[in-house]
Amino acid sequence: MSEPLHSLLRRQLRRHFGAEDAFPPEAAAFVAAVDAAYRLSDEDRARLERSLDLSSRELIARHDELRAMLAAFPDVIFRLAVDGTILELNAGRPGDLPLAPRQLLGRKVQDGLPGPLREALELALERAARSGEPAALEYPLDSPQGRRYWEARIARCGDDGLLMVARDITERVTAQEALRAQEERRRQSQKLEEIGRLAGGIAHDFNNLLTVVLGLADSLAAELPEGPQRADALEILATGRRAANLTQQLLGYSRRQIISPRVVDFNEIVLGIGKLLGRVIGEHVETAYQLGSGLKPVRVDTGQMEQLLVNLCVNARDAMPEGGTITVETAGVRVDRDFAREHAGLAEGDYVRLTVRDTGQGMSADALAHAFEPFFTTKEPGHGTGLGLATCYGIVRQNGGCITVASAPGRGARFDVYLPCVEGAAPAAAAAPPAPPRARRGETLLLVEDDASVRRMTARALRRQGYEVCEAGDGEQGLEQVRADGEGRLSMVITDVVMPKLGGGRMAREILRLRPSAKILFVTGYTDDATLGRGLDESQILRKPFTLEALVRRVRQTLDA
Amino acid sequence: MITEQTRWTPGQGWSPQPPGRLPQAQLAFLFAERALLEGGDLAREIRALYPRAVVLGCSTAGEIFDAEVRDGGAVLTAVRFESSRVAGAHAEIAEASDSFAAGARLAGALSAEELRHVLVLADAPPRVNGSELVRGLASVLPPGTTITGGMAADGERFSRTRLIWDGEARGGAVAVGLYGSRLTVTCGSRGGWDPFGPERLITRSRGNVLYELDGKSALELYKLYLGEHARELPAAAIHYPLALRGEAGCAGVVRSVLAVDESDQSMTFAGDVPQGVYARMMKANYDRLIDGAVGAAEACRKARGGPAQLALMISCAGRKMVLGQRVEEELEGVRDVLAPAALCGFYSYGEIAPFDGASRCELHNETMTITTLAEES
């Protein structure tokens, strides 16, 4: 049985001859040849189609493999046309894309991005497409989950396509920013320390000068009869005291004020100064107090804390010329390790947090960065020394705490002061009445001071009180005189602390070795434990610049002790 | 159910007999060369011969009569049901964007009671968006109502199409509801084209107008593949329909090219080509095209479980162009499966059917779509 003719040939024969076998017998060979040609053509076509079909399947399989590989990456991966049209994408993690992947296909990857980012991305796409060089950019993007940071890398893919890999680097950027902020705080803190040292040094020298000026002015005022000259002397005295006040503020900033820390309930300090604050702040500003209950006690210099509160409130008041509200809050807080790490001077533990908030004009970023620097002020010339916040900084640091500020233009300011708590209850406050000065004659004092002016002025004042005064220009001379004092004529030693050759501290230790019962009064503007040595109490120190009255009173107290 | 079939050819006139032997017919299909329908004389003649019938039809890219296909003539099939009923409606469509609303209007005009099936014919794009028309119909029809039909054609000219409704040549769309508890309607639709090459993303399109694939001119891509045959566009593009990837878990659809516009580098397809959908070019394989037609017929037979009395075949003009002299092999394949059903139909610019019995009704291209009717005695 012969094989049927090719279906197409059969159809053609039917059309031409009415039936597929109705062709003339002499055409049989021709029909057979056509049949063979049709079959050959079909075979060729079948081979080609099979090849095409297999290669297409392989192409799709490779494509699927590539997709599977891309899907394994947590990044968002785009295959793009050169103009940024998204041809294919791997969605990355849930929430990485603003729309469903299907909705993004066919859109341009840069569509919907903020203007500058869109331009930057277009530039990067264009550069990568043109040069073939990979391009990269980092950018923040706001999403419903908050601000996130992305790193995009773009590379040419094939002749006319691009591949863009977008990676969420929020964690990395956040960590870097935290590190940067920490470094900035450290740098700022270091800067403030350096400025503090400089300010402290200047204040110390000024103290010496002012000690002389005040002492001599005091003497003149005491000796001169009523008249223009005495008035001048009193004016010098008053001006000198104002200058002394400034140096005290500088010393406060540089943490070189002598402090008397006490264990107290911080709320008592706030309540105690409330009336004074009201007067200082004025009526156009409302003051609100929100004092936390059950605060643990803190060990602070109450005078400094009052100064801190006044300075912060005055600063707040000045930020609200049109009126507003100052809120003073206290609260007990727990400082954790992370917070402590980010804030120099803090350790993990319990703290009292004092917050002073205002509804004022706020500070610019620049002002914020310099807020605690001495002599930095945004006020008009003559309306502030620029030492208020600097003093706050020094006071808080000297009392073992930390101060932070947050502010933005038009949004007020908030200062937070953290003071470490101590265990136990705060003792009831007791006022210490000042000891009255009592002058006595016949006693010999050794005065050791390297500044000749100060030494002369001090010696003169003491002699005027009836004391015998021996003078020494430095510690070595002073020690020599003590050794030479065989009969024990010297009743006490008054010494400066910082001196060439031999400082007051080391000299005092030598004297005490020779005469354990020796009475020594230190005169200084510093409270540097390293300089003075530990174990001293306030009664052994006279702070520069001093008035003659203070000098005499303290000498008497020391002799009588 | 009784059918009467005849056809008109320029050389022979009506054959095997003049129409009008079944004057009681309730339904008459008239598929013809556009030129024969333009004046309306033929339509009016048929209307007069079947005064009780809903007469509908359209211009074609080839008229199917039994297992034969002819160009330039007309095919008439009249049906008289024993107990089933027929009701129809027509909707003008001024703009393609009105297609959804027109579909909804047509469906609204059909009573839902005992509605078994809806047949729909429509002008081809760009005058009608077939995808939207079907969506509009489905939005109003009772859930589960099957819809089949096709888009009119215009030979290989891809120019202007006509509809026949109520004895007049019209535009827009017509829908016919088939009613009756003894009427069984089944449908099947298959393609048989093979996708090849890479997937490309539709990066710019509007409705059924395609501009860009993978960010590049789609027309240029077609020209590259067509080579010297590019000068035969748009007809030549019928060799490369596009397979659109469906949503996850859904079958895709095939779209064939109807027109090109060099001025804006656009290609108009017979159905929607949505932006953001992946597409692959397809190529013809004779055997699989024929197998596809047979598969559609087998789907009808399987769904019915018994012989049909009438099979309405709507096959894509692209299949006819590609199969060339072998086109009747797909009709013969259908006949072999559905015999002794009477066969009629036409080559279209789009087919309307669910891909299978259960899926949503959609506009297809490049398929053989068959609707079979049977009425229990």
Describe this structure as you would to a colleague.
The complex is a heterodimer of chains A (about 550) and B (about 375). Chain A is of the alpha/beta class and about 550 residues long. In chain A, strands 2-1-5-4-3 form a 5-stranded antiparallel sheet, with helices on both faces. Chain A has a 5-stranded mixed sheet with strand order 7-9-10-12-11. Mean pLDDT of chain A is about 85; it is low at about 430-435. Chain A contains 16 helices and 17 strands. Chain A is rod-shaped and about 165 Å long. By secondary structure, chain B is of the alpha+beta class. Chain B folds into 2 domains: about 1-190 and about 285-375, no CATH class; about 195-285, Elongation Factor Tu (Ef-tu), domain 3 (Beta Barrel), CATH 2.40.30. Chain B is built from 8 helices and 27 strands. In chain B, the strands form 4 sheets. In chain B, strands 15, 16, 17, 18, 19, 20, 21 and 22 form an 8-stranded antiparallel sheet that branches. Classes of the chains: A alpha/beta (about 550), B alpha+beta (about 375). Chains A and B meet through helix 1, helix 2, strand 2 and helix 3 of A and strand 15 of B.
Kindly report the name of the CATH homologous superfamily of the largest domain in chain A. Histidine kinase-like ATPase, C-terminal domain
Gross morphology of chain A? rod-shaped
Average predicted confidence as pLDDT of chain B: 91
Summarize the largest interface: chains and residue counts: A-B, 26 and 24 residues
- Judged by helices, strands and strand pairing, the structural class of chain A is alpha/beta
- In the CATH classification, which architecture of the largest domain in chain A applies? 2-Layer Sandwich
Main sheet properties of chain B: 8 strands, antiparallel
Low-confidence stretches of chain A: 429-433
Biggest sheet descriptor of chain A: 5 strands, antiparallel
In DSSP terms (H or I, runs of 4 or more residues), the helix count of chain A works out at 16
